[in-house]
């Protein structure tokens, strides 16, 4: 997983580099060669033309929700892939499904320590939640098969759909926590009602898998690609 992350990062930067060299050769402005220091600076400063980001990058909405007043603080977090924990899922379910793992990924979690709320002006019990505010053209999901507590690999099978994985229910509008801090009338006026309305379908078909066989200490990777 870390290798994939590093590989995509470097690949994206080199694609930009190649594009820049090709462009400079076309315009004839690089007869004397391109100074490496300038190139490195340009690579670090811009994401324009980074095809890896265009294809794989999405945005999570990370929200802290005050348990006392309902005040929310949100910030965007970009991602190239999503790591889905399996350790707790294995305990809960006999048969694992990718959809269940995604549901749990977007569930709000109660933070152990209270967090300062600017509205309450004190530390309050707080929930944290991640939802998908922008989905990429290619969604890369990683199953975390490393059980750190038991120091072993989780080998349970996880079922996933070959066609039509629906990410619609994981958008902020459809799964973000709404605190019951309004009167019913205020709530109706302030919150869009979703009763009886389904989330939009945002469907992904399975294109490829990367698989690992072996143990934590050795093994092989192989890939299945739908061509
Ligand atoms: Zn508060």
From TrEMBL:
GO molecular function, one term: cysteine-type deubiquitinase activity
Name recorded for this polypeptide: USP domain-containing protein
Domain USP: 1-227
Any one Gene Ontology BP term: protein deubiquitination
Native organism: Trieres chinensis (Marine centric diatom)
Matching PROSITE patterns: USP_2 (PS00973), USP_3 (PS50235)
GO cellular component, one term: nucleus
């Amino acid at each position: 997983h870390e290798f994939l992350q590093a590989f995509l990062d470097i690949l994206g930067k080199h694609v930009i580099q190649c594009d820049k060299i090709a462009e400079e050769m076309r315009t004839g402005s690089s007869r004397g060669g391109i100074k490496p220091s300038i190139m490195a600076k340009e690579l670090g400063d811009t994401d324009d033309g980074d095809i890896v980001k265009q294809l794989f990058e999405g945005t999570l909405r990370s929200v802290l929700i005050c348990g006392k007043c309902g005040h929310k603080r949100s910030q965007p977090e970009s991602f190239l892939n999503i790591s889905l924990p399996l350790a707790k899922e294995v305990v809960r379910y006999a048969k694992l499904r990718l959809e269940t793992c995604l549901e749990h990924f977007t569930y709000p979690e109660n933070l152990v320590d209270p967090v300062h709320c600017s509205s309450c002006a004190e530390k309050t019990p707080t929930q944290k939640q991640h939802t998908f505010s922008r989905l990429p053209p290619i969604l890369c999901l990683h199953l975390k098969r490393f059980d750190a507590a038991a120091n072993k690999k989780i080998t349970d099978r996880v079922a996933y759909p070959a066609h039509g994985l629906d990410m619609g229910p994981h958008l902020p509008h459809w799964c973000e926590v709404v605190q019951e801090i309004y009167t019913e009338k205020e709530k109706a006026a302030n919150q869009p009602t979703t009763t009886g309305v389904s989330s939009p379908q945002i469907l992904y078909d399975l294109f490829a898998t990367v698989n690992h066989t072996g143990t934590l200490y050795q093994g092989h990777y192989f890939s299945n690609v739908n061509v």
